[in-house]
Design a protein that fits this description.
Blueprint lengths: L2 H19 L14 E7 L8 H21 L4 E7 L4 H13 L6 E5 L3 H6 L6 H5 L1 H5 L8 H4 L3 E2 L2 E2 L1 E3 L5 E6 H6 L11 H11 L6 E4 L8 H13 L6 E2 L2 E3 L3 H16 L13 H10 L3 E7 H7 L12 H4 E4 L1 E2 L12 E5 L2 E5 L6 H11 L2 H8 L10 H7 L4 H10 L3 E3 L6 H16 L4 H16 L4 E2 L2
Parallel strand pairs: 1-2, 1-3, 8-11, 10-17, 14-16
Antiparallel strand pairs: 3-15, 4-5, 6-15, 7-11, 7-12, 9-10, 13-14
Length: about 475
Amino acid sequence: MSRKKALGAVASAAIASLTLAACSGGDGDGGGGDGGTLTIVANAIAGGKNEAEATWINEWVIPQFEQAMADEGQDVTVTFEAQGVDDEDYKTKIALDLQSGGGADIIGIDGIWVGEFAEAGYIAPLADVGGDAVTDWDGWEQIPDAVQNGLSFEDQLYGVPQGADGRVLYYNKELFAQAGLPEDWHPASWQDILDAGHALQSIDGVIPIQLNAGTAMGEATTMQGLLPMLVGTGAEVYTDGQWIGATDQLRQVLDLYRTIYVDEQLGDPILQQEADGRDSSFAQFADGQIGILLEGDYFWRSVIDPNDGTAPMDDRDEVVGYTLIPAETPGSGINGQDFVSMSGGTGRVLNPNSDNPELAWELLAFMNSEEAFDARAEYGGLNISPRTDVNEELLEGNEMLTFVSDEVLPITAYRPGLAAYPEVSVALQEATAAVVSGTSVDDALASYSQAVAGIVGEENVNNG
């Protein structure tokens, strides 16, 4: 029996458990046991964008769910509305669907859109739509709170995460050995990173530290540069209804940029201004020209992968080390953490306009069951799932992704999913660009504070 068939054999048991947990008597013509019709929409399509996702939905999710529900005496039909467009076009489509009171029952969504859609009233808290069965779902026990935050807004959970990633510090063990640094490196503070950078300065032709900066790298500057450092000071870009302004914490981060790129010349400021600077940093790290680099697990999986990477390293597993990003000082990170990270990810939400909200939850829970994630892995691409039980199985033997799953995801943070965020992010990028090019931190902070006030209104900026 193939693994796919074996997974299919346990799908009925998974559905039976979900059906017993589901509430009955909801609004609409489906709900608690009469069957009905459901639609899934995602930015995935056979032969195009996110093909593996589309194939999994068509070939496994739909037939397995329909058969399992039939075994429970329910006549359920599920259709998949495949999309394969630019993310912004997809976002516009689902926003218009929801605004008009229509749309699919289950909607694939980027976590960064959740707050914006929630504030617009397009989506509602998951339990408000799906009922008590949402709260009672045993799957939550397998999804760390920090990962659940990827589909949350203002302490309300709006969807189920589909996957997760995390940011770490990568370093070159051979360069560390040449500089007299430990190959098993675990910095406990920003100063430890700077000290390692100073040691690496002794090696000709090596850039000690690459911390993304400037506008040319776009969101990579914010997510793989400023924000991980910011949460290491105990602050986030958006808290309690206010955006960060000229605070002491943001000053600390910009001071770090100035230390690295101006005062102590531990990084290459020109690289941050080049249009292809990020790709260049990847190539330079792969060639042994950069000692320390802050990036996501994407860098390990897709950039320096020995077989399929864009900047492959044949000796990656022997030469490249990775470690947690330390807070500025031990305990100074958000929630009093010693170590921090940032994550992105996608997920799925329930449409509050659904005629079958409780049945839709049964399908959504099924799509996020252990069996479903095991099946998803059969369709290509090894990724970190939101579930710890799945990761323990699927990531076995992959030390790096296991490290991210076990050590990084429980301490990670997320960007605010608000409409203003992209503009605020650009303002933050501009602040780093200014500092790296020699502008004083005071002037960069003042300009940033003025810019963010123009975006969100002065009353919504924390300059304390």
